[in-house]
Amino acid sequence: MRRDEIPTPALLLDLDRFERNLARMAAHVRAAGKALRPHAKTHRCPEIARRQVAAGALGVACAKLGEAEVMAGAGVRGLLVTTEVVAPGAIARLVRLAGEAPDTMVVVDHPDNVRALGAAAAGAGVTLNALVDVHVGARRTGVEPGEPALALGRLVAGQRGLRLRGLQGYAGHCAHVTGWDARRQASRAAMAPLMETRAAFEKAGLPVEIVAGGSTGTFDIDVELDGLTELQSGSYCVMDLEYQRIGGRGGEALTDFEMALTVVATVVSTPGPDRAMVDAGLKAFSTDRPFPPEPVERPGITYGFAGDEHGRLAITDPSRAPRLGERIEFFPPHCDPTINLYDRIHVVRGDRVEAIWEIAARGRSD
Predict the structure, then answer these.
(1) Which residue among 64, 88, 172, 223 is least crowded, i.e. fewest CB within 10 A of its CB?
(2) Where a domain ends, among 210, 239, 268?
C-alpha cells in the first residue's frame, strides 16, 4: 500500500522519525548512567513496546493492569503497573500475571492494599515485586514522603508474598511547565522529597535498587538526580505539539525528539474561498488540549473542529487553498488520547506503508 492509499482519517507513524527518537533516548539514558522503562500508556501498542525494549529499554510502564496483561501476552517483559491495583478481582489477575511474568512490578501507597496484595500472592505461591509510590506534588496517588513512606516500605518488606524493590515518584505537574529553566526548577523541587525518602530507605536498610520517575518534559532534567535509577518518559517516541511547545534546553521548542505521529485527512468539501472541510473531526483527535492550527508543513490554513466527523480549514492564504480530494496530515495536540481513538496505526517510510500495527491495549480501561 502507498501512503496516499490509506483510507482516511487514519493514524500514521513515520518510521524513520520514530526510530531516530528511540535511538536518541537510548543514547541519552546510557550517557547519563540511567535506565529507561518508557510508559506504554502513550501508545498501548505491543509492537512499539517490543521495539523500545530492542532499543535498550528495561521493559515498559503501564498505567493499567489491562495494558500490562496485553503487553505480557505479546511477550513483553519488565512491566511496571504505575497505578495501584486495589479491587479483589484485579488483585487476582495481577497475581496470575506475576505467575506468567515474574518480573512484573506494582506500586503501593496504602497499608490495606499492601496486606491484600501480600496475602493474595502468598496464597498463590508467587512473589509480587512492589515499589512504594511516593507523592511528589502531583496530587494524584502516592504515600507522603519521609516517615509515612518508610513505614509503608517496612510493611511491604514484612509481607511473605511481596518483594520490595524501591520507589516511584511521578511529578506529572512539572512535565508541561513552559521554559526549560522554570521546568527544571519545578521538577527539582518536586523530586527532592523522593530523593530524601530514598536516603531514608537506605539508612533503614530497605531496598532501593529502583527509583523510578520522570517524563518526556523532564527527560534531560531528572537524569541529573543521582538517586534516580530509571526514567518513565513515554511520549518521546512519537511526540506531539503540546510537548514541543514547552521549550527545550536551548530554545522555544522541544526539538530533541521528532514529530513522528500524524493524522491524515481528506478534503471532502470546498464550499467557499475562505474555507474547506476535511473528514477528521472530534472522533479523530483528542480534545483535551486546544487544537493547534498547524498541519504538517502546510502554511496558509488553520484547523478547527466542526463536528464529530468534520474539521474546518480556514484559508488564510488563498494561493495555498486545498483542493477537493487533497490529503493533509496533522500533528495531534496530545498523542496519548489521540492514539487511543484508533484500533491500528499505519507505519510509513516515505511513501510506502511498511506495516499496520494493532493498538491492542486500546479500550483496556481496567
Answers:
(1) 88
(2) 239
Are residues 261 and 191 located together in one domain of the fold? Answer: no
Specify the pLDDT at position 29.
98
For cell 466527523, the residue is 309
Our measurement of the distance from residue 346's CA atom to the centroid of its chain's CA atoms, rounded to an integer in Å, reads 19
203 CB-contact burial (10 Å; exposed 0-12 / middle 13-18 / buried 19+)? exposed
On whether both 115 and 209 belong to a single domain, the answer is yes
The identity of residue 16, as a single letter, is D
Residue 161: DSSP 8-state: T
What is the tens place of the pLDDT at every residue in 40-91?
999 999 999 999 999 999 999 999 999 999 999 999 999 999 999 999 999 9
Chain-centre distance of CA 27, in angstroms?
Answer: 19
Domain count, the chain: 2
- Same domain (yes/no): 230, 308: no
Residue 366 has a pLDDT of 86
Co-location of 314 and 167 in the same domain:
no
278, 281, 285, 287 alpha-carbon torsion, rounded to 10°: 140
Contact present, 236 and 242 (Cβ < 8 Å):
no
Domain that holds residue 270: 3-9+256-358
- Residues 246, 176: contact at Cβ < 8 Å? yes
> For residue 238, what are the contacts with CB-CB under 8 A and spacing of at least 6?
13, 18, 21, 42, 43, 260, 261, 335, 339
CATH number at residue 35: 3.20.20.10
What is the pTM assigned to this prediction? 0.96
